[in-house]
Amino acid sequence: MDLPQLFLVGLVLLLGLLGVLVPGVPGTWLVWAAVLWWALHERTAPAWSLLVSATALLLVVQVVKWQLPPRRLRGVGVTRRMAAYAGAGALLGFVVVPVLGAVPGFVGGIYLCERLRLGTHGEAWASVRAVMRAVGTSVLVELLACLMVVAAWVGTVLAG
User: What pLDDT, in 10s, does the model give residues 74-84?
Assistant: First the structure.
């Protein structure tokens, strides 16, 4: 696969990661479609292995999400700004401490947003707990799985 196509696959992967944070956007399926597109063009054993692994992981994540409690976005005051902070925190944490850093980064992004909005540590932390109970777990599970697929894709591309 040539560099412009690789860049486009990376762009679709990035859009998929951002789509996980936006309700109604099929972010997980964008990530899977990008890996599928790449694997169909690469046609190598590592590419097919990554596609099969990503498919299995993302399907398991969908089942896990259905088992989690339903989302109550409006009841706890989740805004687009908060989603942006949480997503940026997860991506930053993922880069600083690969894979495992996404969790504290996600929570830290929500905390920073709420601290700026509410002003005090106690109120911000109480809001973070309420948000994490309502939506954080579901979004975090899906985002972490997509980040793992993207990391595996980057590793496979760089190794090949």
Answer: 666 778 888 88
Q: pTM of the entire structure?
A: 0.69
Is residue 141 within 8 Å of residue 68, measured between CB atoms? yes
Answer yes or no: are the C-beta atoms of 125 and 131 closer than 8 Å. no
CA 13 to chain CA centroid, nearest Å: 10
Q: How far apart are CA 58 and CA 61, in angstroms?
A: 5
88-100 residue pLDDT tens? 998 898 888 876 7
Q: 13 with 31: CB under 8 angstroms?
A: yes
Q: Which of 137, 5, 10 is nearest to 70 (CA)?
A: 137
For 80, the token pair is 């687009």
